[in-house]
Write a structure and sequence with these properties.
The protein has about 350 residues and is of the alpha/beta class. It has helices spanning about 5-75, 120-130, 140-150, 155-165, 180-185, 210-215, 235-245, 250-255, 265-275, 280-285, 340, 345-350; strands spanning about 90-95, 95-105, 110, 220, 230, 290, 295-305, 310-320, 325-335.
Length: about 350
């Protein structure tokens, strides 16, 4: 009997200790949650501030690039890969990180929106000319050869579907093409743009195309907002070779070795020497209205690394004959952290890696 009060005291003390421990666990959990949310908030603020800083850096680079392009326009109307604008910007230090980038002449690629000029009559006339083996270089045949080079389906129905997507009307070029009625039968249904492509990412929306097609075509095609001519001074070898059977792959390297061309006449003279054809024959088979030696559109591609974070930037710059450059499109996005874990720039690819295919 004399030990019962002591047992009661021990029992009450144990309950009190458990209560204190539970309270401590609750307090620690609450503090840990607050600390975790605080760290997330700090991380978000850091990324926002770093992103704003990176954007200001590339906008400054963009202004400098525009001035370089304007100075180049004042120096002459010929654009080639030996000029200052074509030299890549190596990694350069900025406050808290570095920036690297390059310019690419987008007129050196095949412009998918050139297909928008087709009418039913022009399409049919081209088919008849091919049957008669009297064909000349055309955007349709040119794109078909690029598809073949990339190992993609080069059927006319696919080319017609893309032409109907970018042209302004709702009339089918061929019975196998696609316009409103065909797209409205899809799940989910939608309508064709009947407007030029604004970016290559739209290509998978066109009936018959996929994201794989867009990725395979990316090094060789562009989506410029109007009809453009190919700059023969900056076009990569596959794009030139696809222009005409007269520019066979074996002749392309010899033709590239003669660049830059100061005029279209110089280009045709060089091609005549390489292909063994007369200049007049070449002008009939490869119309001069498809080609140029200068450019109006350039893409600035850059990467900024700040505070352990990376950002990719791309802008499309229009520099018309007047020489006044202006930006008509911009894209700015963080590079996933996975890039660093999987081997740095090589894992995802620096935005300027594609320029290797057109280096002189």
């Amino acid at each position: 009997m004399i030990f019962e009060p002591r047992r009661a005291l021990r029992r009450e003390g144990g309950i009190a200790l458990v209560s204190v421990l539970l309270l401590l666990v609750f307090v620690l959990t609450l503090v840990a949650g607050l600390f975790y949310r605080h760290q997330i908030h700090i991380h978000k603020v850091t990324r926002a501030v770093t992103g704003d800083q990176a954007l200001l850096i590339v906008l400054g680079a963009e202004t400098w690039v525009a001035s370089v392009l304007e100075a180049d326009a004042r120096a002459g109307k010929v654009d080639h890969l030996g000029e200052a604008w074509a030299r890549p910007l190596p990694p350069m230090p900025v406050e808290g990180g570095e920036i690297s980038g390059c310019l690419r002449d987008m007129a050196g690629l095949f412009n998918l929106n050139n297909l928008g000029a087709y009418t039913n009559k022009r399409w049919d006339d081209e088919l008849k000319a091919e049957v008669a083996q009297d064909a000349v270089a055309t955007p349709r045949a040119w794109f078909r050869e690029i598809l073949r080079q990339r190992g993609l389906d080069a059927a006319d129905r696919r080319i017609a579907a893309l032409a109907d997507w970018v042209d302004p009307d709702a009339w089918l070029l061929t019975p196998e093409s696609a316009e409103d009625n065909e797209y409205l039968l899809l799940d989910p249904p939608y309508r064709p743009a009947n407007h030029p492509l604004t970016e290559l990412g739209e290509l998978p929306l066109v009936m018959g195309y996929s994201a794989t097609d867009a990725a395979a075509l990316a090094p060789w095609v562009s989506t410029l907002p109007r009809q453009t001519r190919l700059n023969v001074n900056t076009a990569p070898a596959p794009v030139l070779a696809a222009l005409s059977p007269l520019i066979a792959p074996a002749r392309v390297e010899a033709l590239l070795a003669r660049r830059p061309f100061t005029s279209l006449g110089a280009f045709y003279d060089a091609l005549a020497a390489v292909a063994g054809q007369s200049r007049d024959d070449l002008l009939q088979r490869i119309p001069a209205d498809l080609l140029a030696v200068g450019s109006d559109y350039f893409a600035l591609r850059a990467r900024v690394s700040l505070a352990g974070l990376r950002y990719d930037y791309e802008s499309l710059i229009h520099r018309p004959a007047s020489g006044r450059a202006r930006v008509i499109a911009r894209t700015f996005a963080p590079v996933p952290r996975l890039a660093q874990d999987a081997g740095g720039d090589a894992a995802i690819g620096h935005p300027c890696n594609h320029n290797e295919v057109i280096s002189p």
